[in-house]
Write a structure and sequence with these properties.
Helix content: 10-25%
Largest sheet: 4 strands, mixed
Strand order of the largest sheet: 1-8-5-6
Number of helices: 2
């Protein structure tokens, strides 16, 4: 009677020894597949920079209070069956101009989700105060936020884009358009 239990233990040990490499090789296959790419994120050209002029003045360089640019937009995302979670990092560079007296730039930027060309499905505007201390004339700032995009019912994420830009007045937008070749 003692021989039978010993045989079972051996058979189970052999089976386990055969399954472990198989399980590891299957797990390796699953982890080798790259995750789907994040929906593209970027800044539309006329909304990637801003210039604030002193009130009531002209529009030459001596009247600039602040100017700035979105220097990069980076994303990390994780998909699940209901959508995608995106961690977004927006790098903003701001410079004081000769007409600044307050030493603090107050600006706005937005994050929008586009599902097909011109079809904005969500947008949120964020206020940012950038204080300049000491003799600082230029500052870099990183804004970090998270957003959730539900899976579009009709076609997945093929046409989804994340747009980031400055929330500009009509005058600022026109100024930016005139500055472009």
């Amino acid at each position: 009677m003692t021989a039978a239990p010993a045989m079972r233990r051996f058979a189970l040990a052999t089976l386990s020894a055969a399954l472990v490499p198989l399980a590891l090789s299957l797990a390796g296959c699953a982890s080798d597949a790259p995750p789907p790419p994040c929906p593209p994120a970027g800044t539309p050209a006329p909304l990637d920079s801003f210039t604030q002029f002193a009130p009531g003045g002209g529009r030459d360089l001596t009247e600039v209070r602040f100017s700035g640019r979105i220097s990069s937009v980076q994303t990390i995302c994780e998909y699940d069956e209901k959508g995608v979670d995106i961690d977004l990092a927006v790098d903003i560079r701001v410079e004081r101009g000769p007409a600044d007296k307050s030493r603090q730039a107050d600006l706005q930027y937005f994050v929008a989700v586009e599902d097909g060309p011109g079809n904005i499905t969500a947008k949120q505007v964020f206020d940012v105060a950038v204080p300049f201390e000491g003799n600082s004339r230029r500052l870099a700032r990183r804004e970090e936020l998270s957003l959730r995009i539900p899976t579009p019912a009709d076609r997945g994420f093929r046409q989804t884009r994340v747009l980031v830009g400055f929330q500009l007045s009509p005058e600022q937008l026109e100024f930016n358009r005139r500055q472009r070749p």
